[in-house]
């Protein structure tokens, strides 16, 4: 398996950012986010092999359309300063082009490949946006994108990717409507407080393992039918996050830590559509927060789902629906402080990447064959994603090595899902 970096360059916006937009202040939700990246890999089959070959290299098309979309998403071409504010100075996004001499199917068989697909190790503060295009020996390609979580949540990331792809398709003569210009003024809706609690404590990455689990639609339906006997209409995300959370906590107990260690799950929430009145559709940035699900002892799965559903509903009734109250930002800051004060030392972070249109990211040569997160994620983290069929789901789980060895054999987990890689 040979790996070669072909080129690495900085892609700047096709038009300069106006002086009045040169500084982006953090919002209430940006401030507590650590300097991590939203990280995603898009795999594409070779759908354009023909006697005539490709009209232009995908690399050229991606760079040209990236330059154009950065004119709209100008903060992504800037640089973080003081770990919070953004200097929108058109410094550019990093674009790396690489070749990997192995078939794309080897990705799920060789853990070392994941590191080669990434444009960095995820610890950098700048650049805000990094992209790597990797060509496989079979003709397939992977596009790995790192976008700073300090100024973007998953919804913003997904919108950016689809807008970028839309511009690329227009360059191929598809004549689609260009994306609406995004708004980066979240701080005017959610001004930051004087101080902020870190949403996630910085964690060491040594001795952690990443595994991917697949959950087919019939299995999810069976899980829902079982839990619905006790809990009314749970969502797919609630079911799988509760299943994985419970299995992870029990696996920690399986290491001889009896009774089970008190644990907490931080479940991320996109509040865009939960705020009353609704926020502008074009508003971008981090419009997310979290609620906490404690687990003090071993319980039935339906009880975890019940607590998750109840805590979520209580959170939504108290905060997003009252966001125009004068004291809302102060109340939310107090909520965060109280939540962290009650949070157990053994905590997990779960985010859902479902229903945001990532499988629609088509640059003109077809939709992705597979989308996943690379291995550069954090300890005790759970990422839920749609399967390609839109009905099944996949989970990317990151745990301590010894905990994962117990977790991946959990019978309740394996009765509804299977290990993918």
UniProtKB/TrEMBL annotation:
Extent of the signal sequence: none
* Annotated segments matching region Disordered: 1-21
Q: Name one Pfam family in it.
A: Transferase
Q: Name one GO molecular function term.
A: acyltransferase activity
What Gene3D superfamilies does the entry give? Chloramphenicol acetyltransferase-like domain
Q: State the family it belongs to.
A: Belongs to the plant acyltransferase family.
Q: What is this protein called?
A: Vinorine synthase-like
């Amino acid at each position: 398996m040979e790996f070669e970096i072909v080129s690495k360059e900085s892609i700047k916006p096709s038009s300069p950012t106006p002086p009045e937009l040169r500084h982006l202040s953090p919002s209430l939700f940006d401030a507590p986010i650590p300097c991590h990246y939203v990280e995603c890999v898009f795999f594409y089959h070779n759908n354009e092999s023909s006697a005539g070959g490709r009209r232009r290299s995908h690399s050229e098309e991606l760079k040209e359309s990236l330059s154009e979309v950065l004119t709209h998403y100008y903060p992504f071409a800037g640089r973080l300063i003081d770990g919070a504010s953004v200097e929108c100075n058109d410094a550019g996004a990093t674009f790396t082009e690489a070749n990997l001499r192995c078939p794309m199917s080897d990705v799920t068989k060789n853990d070392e490949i994941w590191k080669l697909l990434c444009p960095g190790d995820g610890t950098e503060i700048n650049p805000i946006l990094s992209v790597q295009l990797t060509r496989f020996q079979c003709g397939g390609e992977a596009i790995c994108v790192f976008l700073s979580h300090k100024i973007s949540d998953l919804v913003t990331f997904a919108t950016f990717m689809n807008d970028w792809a839309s511009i690329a398709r227009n360059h191929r003569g598809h004549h689609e409507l260009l994306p609406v210009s995004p708004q980066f003024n979240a701080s005017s809706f959610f001004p930051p407080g004087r101080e902020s609690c870190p949403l996630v404590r910085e964690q060491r990455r040594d001795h952690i393992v990443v595994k991917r689990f697949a959950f087919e639609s019939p299995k999810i339906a069976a899980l829902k039918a079982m839990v619905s006997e006790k809990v009314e209409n749970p969502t797919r995300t609630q079911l799988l996050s509760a299943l994985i959370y419970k299995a992870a906590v029990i696996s920690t107990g399986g290491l001889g830590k009896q009774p089970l260690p008190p644990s907490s799950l931080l479940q991320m929430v996109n509040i865009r559509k939960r705020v009353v009145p609704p926020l502008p559709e074009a508003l971008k940035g981090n419009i997310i927060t979290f609620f906490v699900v404690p687990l003090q002892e071993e319980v039935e799965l339906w009880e975890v789902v019940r607590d998750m559903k109840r805590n979520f509903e209580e959170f939504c009734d108290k905060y997003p629906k009252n966001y125009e109250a004068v004291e809302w930002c102060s109340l939310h800051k107090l909520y965060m402080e109280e939540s962290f004060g009650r949070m157990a030392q053994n905590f997990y972070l779960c985010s859902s990447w479902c229903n945001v249109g990532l499988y629609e990211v088509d640059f003109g040569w077809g939709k992705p064959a597979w989308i996943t997160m690379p291995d550069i994620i954090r300890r005790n983290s759970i990422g839920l994603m749609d399967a390609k069929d839109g009905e099944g789901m996949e989970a990317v789980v990151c745990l301590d090595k010894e905990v994962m060895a117990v977790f991946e054999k959990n019978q309740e987990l394996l009765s509804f899902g299977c290990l993918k890689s």
